[in-house]
Amino acid sequence: MNKYFSHLTFNKLCTTAFLLRVILLIYGEYQDAYFTVKYTDIDYVVFTDAARYITQGQSPYLRETYRYTPLLAMILTPNIYWFRSFGKCLFAIADLLVGYLIHHILILRGMTSRNALKYDALWLLNPMVANISTRGNAESLLGVMVLGTLYCILKKQFYSGCVLFGLSVHFKIYPVIYAVPLLMLLDDHYYGDREESLSRKLRMFQLRLLEILKERKLVHGLVSFLSPLRIIFAISSASVFFILTGFMYLQYGNEFMQHTYLYHVTREDHRHNFSIWFYQMYLGIENTNRLMGLVAFVPQLALVTILGAAFGKDIFFACFIQTFIFVAYNKVITSQYFMWYICLFPLILPSLKIKFKWKGLMLLLAWIAGQVI
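Above: the chain sequence. Below: its structure as tokens.
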């Protein structure tokens, strides 16, 4: 495979990925204009309608089925003020930013730029990824926030990572699952000898407290885990989340909380049949029970928490397996949900011992067949 990448550079790869998305955007406009079946995703129509309500000083939740933070509708107000495909262009640019982050994370992990190209291409030249973004789905924005968090933490840009993590959880609640492996990663060796003064002072206080509690093993273990860096991370990222969420709550009240967060905990939708819960929901659609949504949520939350703790020291594998399990056990699964873990896959692939020929190819075809059937 390396011979196909011998004359390729990262700039050429990004240019090719950019042209692919431009072609799809232009084709999308053509299909929308002349075909009965539209290229544009219905979600993008919902986003645009919500953005229109924002420009009119009204609630985005006046648009039925808008189940997202008002921040997304605010970001997409240029759809109304400038041109209707602004959001699609933004999502396509976010796609390229995800590719940029994948490339530089791989380099930070010790891979050469040339060797990283084949892994970058799994995202940048992925037709499924390009199609989903250019049809108007916002998952690539979330990908930038999640990978941006991991990149900043890896680069020791601690507070930038905190901000991005808090923003990602506000934007869509599921990235909160990454708190477990992130906390596992942020141990006493994270900064090495360059520990900042605040963390160093808190560390001295923690050591004195541990000396006092050395006879009480359970409390001693808890205090030992709650290192200054972990506490600062939790407070900083939570502050970003609560400031944004509090502002939106003041603006839009209970409907914001219901549509953005609470709705997704008890959501049931028999039309999205990728879910393992599909048939159960289909059989009970006439007798909807909110308890069903909560029951389905328990194994999902338990598994991602255990896996995050178990593999926390390998942050990228932990985040990937958490996301894969979270999506697999979700009550509703559509194609764009796969982007949540596809953006993480190139980061763990170099560590896998599976050869593409033939085992890897068979696994890939089995995954594709699962979506088709």
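The first helix runs from residue 10 to 34.
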